[in-house]
Protein: Beta-glucosidase
Amino acid sequence: MSPVGRQMQNRRFGFYLLYTVIAALGMIIATSVAAAQVADGPWMNSKLSPEERADMVLKQLTLDEKLALLHGNGMAHVPQWQMPLSQLTNGGAGYVEGVKRLGIPPLVISDAGYGVRDSGANGRYSTAMPSSLGAAASWDQDSACEFGTVIGQELRAQGFNMTLGGGVDLAREPRNGRSFEYAGEDPLLAGTVVGNLMKCEQAQHVVGDIKHYVMNDQETGRFFVNSVISKRAMQESDLLAFHIAISIANPGAVMCSYNRINGDFGCENSYTLRDVLEQEWGFRGFVISDWGGTHSTEKASAAGLDQEQPMADFFGPKLKEAVEAGRVPMSEIDDHARRVLYAEFLSGIVDDPPQKSVVDVEKGFEVAQRVEEKSIVLLKNSPTVLPINPSRVHTIAMIGGHADVGMISGGGSAQVDPPGGNAIMPPGKGATIWQKPVWFPTSPLEALQTVLPNAKIDFDPGTDPKSAANLAKSADLAIVFAYQCLAEDMDVPSLSLPDNQDALIEQVAAANPHTIVVLETGTAVTMPWIDKVAGVVEAWYAGSSGHKALANVFVGDVNPAGKLPLSFPKSEADLPHPDAPKIPSESRHAGDVADSGAPTADASAHAGYAVHYDEGPEVGYKWYEAQNKKPLFPFGFGLSYTTYAYSGLSVDSTARTARFTVKNTGKRTGTEIAQVYGRLPKGSDESFKRLAGWKRITLAPGESQIVTIAIDDRVLKTFDEEKNAWNLRPGKYQVLAGSSSDNTPLIASLAVR
Structure:
């Protein structure tokens, strides 16, 4: 840091210190007057509604106490984000003062995308669940609930009472470095999975969070990119996903995003915050900014931002001065503070604050394994390769991916620390710790050897394709582990596997026709070798017990049932935006925020950088159908070790349900995810199908089951911008049922009058 910068930081710190001392003096005086109120205050009656309790507390607060609820207090481990109370963050992401004299606890906040962040760095332990994208591949609300329950319990055990998880942004840009934190390309699937995850996480008495609201669909230029999209298209896609998630989870908080949306930053966008989130949807919790994502005081406050994080640059002294000068009405401050208080009562952290305890490690392992077993997607399988037959397979060549020692995880603020540290030391000096590939010590080799004790398994690192091919040639079966590193604050340049892995797979497959590829990826990948391998298994980022789950699938102890939550394109040329996101050279300057990593740097210098989502609501499979393109693997696709047949679709237009029969026509018990899609009436300007419901059903060999699935008409409605209203137009809607978005053999009609 330069001397000038250090001087400015010292001045700011001194200003915050003075502000904190003054506020503390006010609190001491107030405490001496009303210390007895804590136990006897009527707001401590848990039989009252969160709204009633919040209103009661609000009437007791001074202006300084209200303002203290509206901003963070820095991060202990980040030098540029320091305030006098930063040491109280518990090693987490942030700290918000409570009101001790009234029994209102502080918010102690942690990142927790797929597990509690920085546990290792803080001398603790947390479970890594499979990535959120992997959990979405299970299409299972119960798995999502288990996922959230474990994280909520482990947050509390570490002393946190608020989570920063719940990513719902759609996979419009599959090269997005945070794709693994989200739940795919469909609003109904993403909203349902993440909504159930966060509902069960908040049920553990932590304040829940849904993020990053909204259109935060790429990381390139994330602090300033302008996401340009029509209101109708946004309502029918990304906003719909958030609405579904919020309606299920009823979270205490929603995190607004860094990016601009049609010109205004996400954290000062009156359309998305005030008009949609608060007024149309009736959201009662508070809007929390992404870290450093606040850009103004009066505009942000009026637009609906309730809490600035992690500092008080705009919602501290500046906000108090604006109130006292009459530029911000007290009604706005009361609304912000009431929402924070409501979230605290809603989540239960007032009545049941966290007590530090020992994490239930075994439970975490068990849940992580169950979720991963449901999330693994079998993409290709010749009849003779999977499941592995021990009577035929005596020698296995395991190649690449550091599969002898571990499995890769997702990076950035979602990163979970592996016990004992990174299982490998990644080569190169270019990657920062923030984006460094991290392998959990979950060895597929050891797990497979455990379930195949009589097989001889040899490992080759794959760094020399010729050596790997030689090993494969001498084995009954070759398994190549391929990985893709994703992390926050980066997008991948392409969907190709990095580090020459495509060439490795080509050579191994040429040497052994019985080659299986295991993909450890955070998004879709292209597969130029797909016709040359016998099997492909998508394991995602597999979590703390991923190796055991994968081994069980390999030997058939678990019949894979996962289905893709996003389409896999044949090439980037098939995407709505074929070229990878890039910041135009004319937008760059010395000290660019993309280089400095400072969200509040001079974003105005990049005001012209925009991504135009001209595809509108045609995200993923909807785009491919509208463009008459075939993806490599479609949304909703996934194979099994058995087969299924669909028949007899009927639709009840009054009850809006679809009814049909699914039969297991194979020789193994399996779970099928039966899917129902809808298509708007003829004459509509949106002819693509859209997911309208699904059901997981488990069938024994030869067993049939009549399945009834409710048709969710939210996905069949169109948004009228002029009337600012949704419309379910009269007519005959086509209803389709089948095993994936491009395999819907059953067709019937739904009449809407």
